[in-house]
Amino acid sequence: MNEQGYTFLESIFHLLITIAFLQLFLLFFVWKAPIERQFSDHSATEWELFAIDLQRLLTNVSTLEIPDVNRISFRIDRHTYHVSQSGNVIRWQKAGEGHVPILTNVRSVNFTFDGSMVTAYVTMLDGRIRERGFAVGLYPE
To answer: How far apart are CA 7 and CA 116, in angstroms?
Structure first.
């Protein structure tokens, strides 16, 4: 008879909605923990991004040479690219203009080329040694 307040059914309905949202809230934290463990190593994430960038650059080259062990030079279309170490950074340069850093905290880098694969051996500042092979797509002009 008095319709000025909440009814018992409304209270039960609000309680069920709150419980449903709490379940989603808890599910988020269950999902978040393994993701944080996987990406807590920022150097591993940076290494994977470096690998993606270098593989993208080496996909469609017309020539490739290694003038010294810590530098590679290659041509894509009409532009010459260089990937080299400068200080603690590996960076790439297009046609002699500017530099784009692609990996930081590097002590040394060595590149080898066997005709179809460029292999990068990178020693990080913390002493870890990382190695990755990159397929080279040679398309002569």
So the answer is: 75
With beta carbons less than 8 A apart as the criterion, state whether 55 and 134 touch: yes
Claim: this prediction has a pTM higher than 0.70 = no
Q: Which of helix, strand or coil describes residue 8?
A: helix
Supply the DSSP string of 65-94, one letter for each residue. Answer: EEEETTEEEEEETTEEEEEEEETTEEEEEE
Find the length of the chain: 141
User: Residues 122, 90: contact at Cβ < 8 Å?
Assistant: yes
* Tens-digit pLDDT profile for residues 104-118: 999 999 999 998 899
Radius of gyration of the chain measured on its C-alpha atoms? 26
**Could you tell me where the DSSP H helices lie in the chain?**
8-38, 42-57
Place of tokens 């990382």: 130
Residue 116 contacts residue 136 (beta carbons within 8 Å)? yes
Cβ neighbour number for residue 47 with a 10 Å cutoff? 17
| Cα distances (Å, whole numbers) of residue 84 to 21, 29, 60, 92 | 52, 42, 19, 6
